[in-house]
Amino acid sequence: MLCSISALQAKPLAVRPGRRQAACSASAARRDGAAAASQSGLDRSTPQQQPQSPKRRVEAAALALAGGVTLSNGGSLQAQPDMDIDTAAFQDYRDNPPARKTKIVCTIGPTSCTREGLFQLADAGMSVVRLNMSHGDHASHKAVVDLVREYNSLGRGNLAVMLDTKGPEVRSGDLAAPLQLSAGDKVTFTIVEGADGTDNRIGVNYDQFVDDASVGDMLLVDGGIMSLQVERITDIALVPARCRPARCACRCRRRHLNIRGKSANLPAITDRDWADIRFGIEVGVDFYALSFVRDAAVIYELKDGTSAIGVLAKIESADSVEHLEEILDAVDGAMVARGDLGAELPVEEVPYWQSKIVQGCRRRGKPCIVATNMLESMIQNPTPTRAEVSDIAIAVREGADAVMLSGETAYGRFPFKSLDTMTTVARRTELSMLKYHGTRRLADQGLAEMFAYHAVTMANTLKTSLVVFSRKGNMPALLSHYRPDYPIYCFTENELVQRRMALYHSVTAIYMRFSEQQEVTFDRAIGMLKERGHAKGGQLVAIVQSGRQPIWRTASTHAIQVRAVPQDPAEDLSSDDEGGPVAKFPIQQQQPES
Ligand SMILES: Nc1ncnc2c1ncn2[C@@H]1O[C@H](COP(=O)(O)OP(=O)(O)O)[C@@H](O)[C@H]1O
Ligand SMILES: C=C(OP(=O)(O)O)C(=O)O
């Protein structure tokens, strides 16, 4: 049984569905369909829910492979409205849920930096560890990276590390004691040394603060938790302001300060950031999240010296949204940093920008993280608010690659419950929206792009996972871009690629040494999928191999195949009237195209 589409660099597509392949696909399709129908007990009388005959599904797959079809759900060749809900598939998924597709970034801080804490978060579904360089020191961050390496080397998972630069941010200084303020109280922000909250005088780390502010401006503390109106600016660099809330505990210790609508006039990457960036190279982080990016120039500056490390732009300033398209063209991915974004821009504009940024990344096939305040109330409480749950669901529905926890896992009282809540909400949301849709329509016509597109269409039609072999990570990223219904298993012998995939939607990356022989490698990979419970005997998988150079000398540069996972003797070899029992793997050597 082998369905294979392959092409040498400039060759046209050839569809070669053999009889065995049709038989295998048909039997698997029948099993799928029957299982879904019996589990759901649903009335399938509407056209969209009509079970498709196995033959039609295979024909549909072949048609889809022949091109000209929009990315769609299992079997239907019509374009589906976005976020469609397929009730039968929902039931199917609920009974046999695949891996979560949306990744989770956790900020590591005092409550999660121990071996036990970090391992527990990792076991519970953390994909990427975020080091916030605004806090902690190099020694404490290095200790976290060491724990991540230990976790990965134990074979327990595949965590990536993201170093989030402090950036040219404006922050208040330390306080000797918490401040209690009442309405009408005046607060003075000053660059004069020694201000520690005494007499309501608070330090600021930015010398030009006074030049940027004007009387009447709103000064936001911690993204707007407190807002203060600037009443007076003195020539000794003081900014007195009136406190808005009736009575509040002033959360002013090392907090972000933003003047609404104005970006600070600081260098894009400060000396302190460069030191942190060098530290990132030394310890081998996988991503930089660059704070307060204003335009693309700073991205090129950073990428110049650090090519192996993915650069994500944090979109969090009025300047960055103005230059959004050029920034997204330059970066490897982005973060919707809603804390500062909602302080520099009117907060009601944040959802609009969130959608723009997520869609902008998805169009370019670049990963996007939605961050900040996702489960803020769980810093103190064991349960989320309904609004927080909806907020996560929206990010998942928009197709963000990842959602992020900040204070919830860094210093909150319920770091594990927060992660558990986020995981559950993400998965539930994914179950209710089987169909994501690719956003690019073969715009640049590259062969790899076309293969990714068709492989995803085929896998969706046949309801199979995708298996990809990758040396540089390009093909799994492309497959992820098209948001397949089922997981992408990326096999690689490059640990950097493996870790980087931790951020990409739907991708589970598995380290595996490739054999000189393609068939041995495929065999080994399918064996690993079975061992880890990702695939069962008799199931189909779509194998994709594509790149500028073939991995195996005798193989095509580009190939898509559908194969059946071999049955163990103990497994039920259910017979199939079109082709007999599913054959043992490997069934047939793939021949290179001449
Ligand atoms: N490495 C760290 N060491 C100490 N505290 C940390 C660390 N990382 C994060 N935190 C705490 O967690 C809070 C929330 O994290 P985050 O949202 O990343 O911070 P911020 O908004 O201050 O940039 C921080 O304000 C800080 O109190
Ligand atoms: C993620 C953000 O950045 P930081 O935690 O550095 O404030 C944000 O502003 O939302």
UniProtKB/TrEMBL annotation:
Required cofactor names: Mg(2+); K(+)
EC number: 2.7.1.40
Catalytic activity reported: pyruvate + ATP = phosphoenolpyruvate + ADP + H(+)
Keywords: ATP-binding, Glycolysis, Kinase, Magnesium, Metal-binding, Nucleotide-binding, Pyruvate, Transferase
Domain of life assignment: Eukaryota
Location of the Pyruvate kinase barrel domain: 100-418
Residue span(s) of domain Pyruvate kinase C-terminal: 451-546
Biased segments, Polar residues type: 42-53
Top enzyme class: transferase
InterPro entries: Pyr_Knase (IPR001697), Pyrv/PenolPyrv_kinase-like_dom (IPR015813), Pyrv_kinase-like_dom_sf (IPR040442), Pyrv_Knase-like_insert_dom_sf (IPR011037), Pyrv_Knase_AS (IPR018209), Pyrv_Knase_brl (IPR015793), Pyrv_Knase_C (IPR015795), Pyrv_Knase_C_sf (IPR036918)
Pathway annotation: Carbohydrate degradation; glycolysis; pyruvate from D-glyceraldehyde 3-phosphate: step 5/5
An annotated Gene Ontology molecular function: pyruvate kinase activity
One Pfam family named in its UniProt record: PK_C
Composition skew (Low complexity), residue ranges: 27-41
Biased composition (Acidic residues): 569-579
One GO cellular component term: chloroplast stroma
Region Disordered, residue ranges: 27-55, 564-594
Recorded family membership: Belongs to the pyruvate kinase family.
Designated name of the protein: Pyruvate kinase
Organismal lineage: Eukaryota, Viridiplantae, Chlorophyta, core chlorophytes, Trebouxiophyceae
